[in-house]
Amino acid sequence: MRNFDQSQKDWAKACKRLGLNVDTKRGKGSHILISNPKSGTKFTIQQHLYNIANLKIYKKLLELGFKEEEINKALK
């Protein structure tokens, strides 16, 4: 696992690289909506992220079946 200092924009780019849908218009307020086109799973990413929030996003991507290497590569 890695140290996290990612922004909402970083996660949005990474999710797009992983093949997930990123919708900046449908999230509530400043949140963005991420959806998996294969499973239909959805989650939001808030604008102001802290280490715990970053870790939860990372774990959510792991739950969706992405490998650590894939996520780390997408975040670069």
Uncertain segments are none
Number of strands: 3
Gross morphology is globular
Percent range of helical residues? 40-55%
SSE ordering: HEEEHH
Please compute the radius of gyration using only Cα atoms: 11 Å
Major sheet? 3 strands, antiparallel
What is the spatial order of strands in the main beta sheet?
A: 1-2-3
Domain unit count: 1
Q: What is the end-to-end distance?
A: 14 Å
Instruction: Provide mean pLDDT, rounded.
Output: 90
Strand content: 5-15%
Helix and strand composition category: alpha+beta
Number of helices: 3
Task: Set down the secondary structure blueprint.
Blueprint: H1 8-17, E1 21-23, E2 32-35, E3 42-45, H2 51-63, H3 68-75
Antiparallel strand pairs: 1-2, 2-3
Helix pairs in contact: 1-3
Describe what this molecule looks like in 3D.
This protein starts with 7 loop residues before the first helix and ends with a helix. With 76 residues, the protein is α+β, with helices and mostly antiparallel strands. Strand 2 and strand 3 form a beta hairpin. The chain has 3 helices and 3 strands. The protein has a 3-stranded antiparallel β-sheet, with helices on one face. The chain is globular. The longest helix is centred in the C-terminal third of the chain and has 13 residues.
Structure summary:
The protein has 76 residues and is of the alpha+beta class.
Main attributes?
single chain, 76 residues, alpha+beta, 3 strands
